[in-house]
Specification:
single chain; alpha/beta; Rossmann fold; 2 domains; elongated
Length: 314
Amino acid sequence: MSLLLAMTGWHVEDWRERFKALLPDMPIVILGEPFDRRSVHYVASWKHPEGSLAGLPNLAAIFSLGAGVDHLFADTRLPEVPIARVVDPDLTTRMSEYIVLHCLLHLRQQRRYDSQQRQSSWEDDRNQPAARSVRVGMMGLGELGQDAARKLKVMGFDVAGWSRSPKSVAGLQTFAGTDGMAPFLARTDILVSLLPLTDETRGTIDATMLAGLAQDGRLGGPFLINAGRGGLQVEADILAALDAGTLKGATLDVFETEPLPVESKLWTHPAVTVTPHNAAMSEPEAIATQIAAQIRRLEAGEPLEHVVDPARGY
């Protein structure tokens, strides 16, 4: 049996060497090179070509090489086998760092002071609200969202969370479902999106959602942080909300089209911070180690961990 590496945009030979060291008794084959399709029991994928995993008769499991799995479900011919996602403490910590950093930058008005520095302008109106008076709304309460929420609370922020189905999280006010969205948005000064991308969530961050955010907060208007998936946001609506004052600022790590096209107005909008989809770059060695451990579990007759629900898309 063998492990097939099916990926685009990454240096596949580096991954082959990692897996060879971790699984010395298992052949590691690469999509695009000759291999026996009957021998493949496992696939590690990142944006594999459409239909390229079809015709693997002994396939037992597919592993995503990234935190998201929407790239897998984009393949309409994806084999019906168990799919496992990455749950990596290093990735979780990096995402929380990003969320805390940008919440603090909005709280402390750092973009304003950067602009003043470029103009050699000393202007301080002493309007410095405390974190406890700023309401953060965490949209998505998976492992990433819960960890970021906990760390924001340590910094003093007033944090609440929203999820598609009800969740109970110790010390956190939670909202759920369609009925919970409006009250969740109405108490949110900084909206953080860590939702997975599914048919139901695509285009969620639109004009209607942005118009529902609190306009009475201590920051003078609401802010958006999207470090989830670019397909969640309608960028034309974000720009319109910024220009209309419905939204005061946005930090975006993900985009409808990546890399972000050079002609996008997001690059130059004064209220937008752009980062190149690197909020939580998981360490490749950690991902390979986790997948190798999952394969050893299966080989020992133990159940797969972190299994994706195809019906929900995550």
